[in-house]
Amino acid sequence: MKRRGFMMACALAILPLPALAQDGGKVVIYTPNNAQAVEAVTEVFSEKAPELSLSTITGGSGQLLRRVEAEASAPQGDLFWNSSENTLAGFREYFEPYASPEAEAIQDDLKRPESPWTATNLHVVVGMVNTDQLGELPAPTKWQDFLDPAWKGKVAIADPNNSSTAFTILWGFEKLMGTEALKQLAANVVVNSSASAVLRGVGQGEFAAGFTYESNAYAFVAGGQAEIALLYPEEGTFTSPEFQALIKGGPAPEAARRAFDVMLSRDMQVALLENTFRRPSRADIDVSEHVDLPALDSLKLFPTDEAEAAANRDDFLARWQEYVKAGQ
Length: 328
Description:
Keywords: Plasmid, Signal. The protein is an alpha/beta fold and 328 residues long.
C-alpha cells in the first residue's frame, strides 16, 4: 500500500496543473481609463473572479499601444482595455481573437466578428462647458460657436497623437463640419497632453469648454458641479464604440480570457454605467434604469466610418499638426 500510494503521488505530481494555476491568476491590463473606472472594475473582479489578481498599467491610448508594439517579442501585458477601433486598427497584428461567450449579448451593430477586438461600451461626443467661465461669451449651442475668434484660448482638446478620444472627436468634427471649420477650430483650441488634462482644466475653471466623451463630462455633473453643462451640438454629434482585445502572446493567456469574459459581463457593464456613466455595449441593459442620460434616439447623431478613420489616421494627424501650428 505504501508503494502504491507513493506511485500515485508521483503520477499526480507530473499531471499538468489547471491553467489558471499555471498562469498564477495574475492578469496585466493596459488601460487608458481613469482611476474611477479601474476601481469599479477591480470591485467587480473581487466578487466575480476572486481567483484573479489584476495589475493595471495606465496611460494614453497611443502611448500604451506603442508599448504593446515595442514589447511584441516578449509581451508583458495580457489585455488591452479599451480604445476606439480607429486607433486599435493600426496595431491589429499585436492582438489575438477570442470568441467570448459573453459576446453573444453585444448589440448587433457593435459586433466585429472579423476583428480581434470586442465592444465594451459606447461613447457620445459632447462639449463640456464651465458656465462660470463664459464671461461675456454666450453659452454655446453648436459646433459653429467654437469657431468664433472670441473662443481662442478658452476651449481645450487633448493631443490626438496620444488620445483616441481626441482623434475620434476631431475626425468626426471634420466629417461633419468640413476642413475649413477644422482649421478654424485648430486656431482656437488649446491642445492638452491628455484627455484627463482637458477634464481637469474645464472642471477647475482653466478653460470655459472642452471636447470629450459624455461619460467623462457627466461625472462632474453627477459629482455636484452645477456649473458644468453637457452640450449636444445642434448640428449633430457622433458616437464611438470602444473595444478590448487580448494581447498576442501575453504571459497569462487563460487568466486573460477569464478576465476578458468578466469585463464583458452584465454585472461589469452595469457597474461601469453606474460608476463611470459609460453606455454599455450589451443589448440587455436599459441605460435609463441606472443613470440620468438622454436616450440615444433623442440625439441627432452623425454617422462616421471607423475603418476610414483608421486608414487615414496618419494623414489626418499630420494635417492637424499643420493646422494647429498655422493657427498659433
